[in-house]
Amino acid sequence: MFSATTTSRLAQAATLANTAPGPRGGRLLPDRLDQPAELPVALPNWNFDEDPSSATLRSVRKLRAAVAGIWQDAHALDIDAALEGVNHLLASAGPVHVIAPEPATERTPAVLAAGQDSDVPEKTLSTSLALALAEVALAGELTRLRTCSGEDCTNAFVDLTRNRSKQFCDEANCANRAHVKAYRARQAAESSDRGDHSDHPDHSDDPDHEAESDEMSSEHGSLEDAQEKKDKAGKKKAKKGKKKK
Ligand SMILES: [Zn+2]
């Protein structure tokens, strides 16, 4: 969908946005870019000095606010606002040109480039994220910039699934927590439908229940796959329930 370079830059953009204080995966986290020394820890792939200046930190915090704004606009489907945000970042990146990636044939699509080799890390970071977000906009894929639907989580993530079905971030177990909650709600609804708990088998002995728990804990599996399996498991269980009645 996107080039490897763009995909990795988008992941960096989400990582940066998610250092802001707020609900993250069910926990209220503090600002993780509060001190200059936190920069190389928060963004380990970006070659910041071990002891960056507070001016560097301020630049990265401004970039973080800009990236988070683009993400929120895209998630809210306000594409004009998201494009405006991308244009701001592109303007500070300086002249943008197109280059052939290496190795290239005469039909290899060119990629966007900007900046100088002498740029400081915060400038390189800003330029890279601007170019990646521009590529996303050019591909008409800004709606892939999403915010986690998990309870108490506002993490930014990029939905790279074919059918745009990803709803949860990968880093905070949010899909698992949501599935467990939905599963418990279903169980509670089923019990109250039956109105009688006495002839209902304990689900902890139910092999299907075990299987479902395993699926739910595979947080790195694709959500679609997990959902599909769960739907099947649900149908199986429904059949089984009928037999028992
Ligand atoms: Zn989340």
From TrEMBL:
Biased composition (Acidic residues): 207-216
Highest taxon above the source species: Bacteria
Chain positions covered by the region annotation Disordered: 185-245
InterPro entries assigned to the protein according to its UniProt record, in alphabetical order: ABATE, ABATE_dom_sf, Znf_CGNR
Zinc finger CGNR domain boundaries: 144-187
A Pfam short name: zf-CGNR
Record's compositionally biased regions (Basic and acidic residues): 191-206, 217-231
Regions of compositional bias (Basic residues) in chain numbering: 232-245
Cleavable signal peptide: none
UniProt-recorded name of the protein: Zinc finger CGNR domain-containing protein
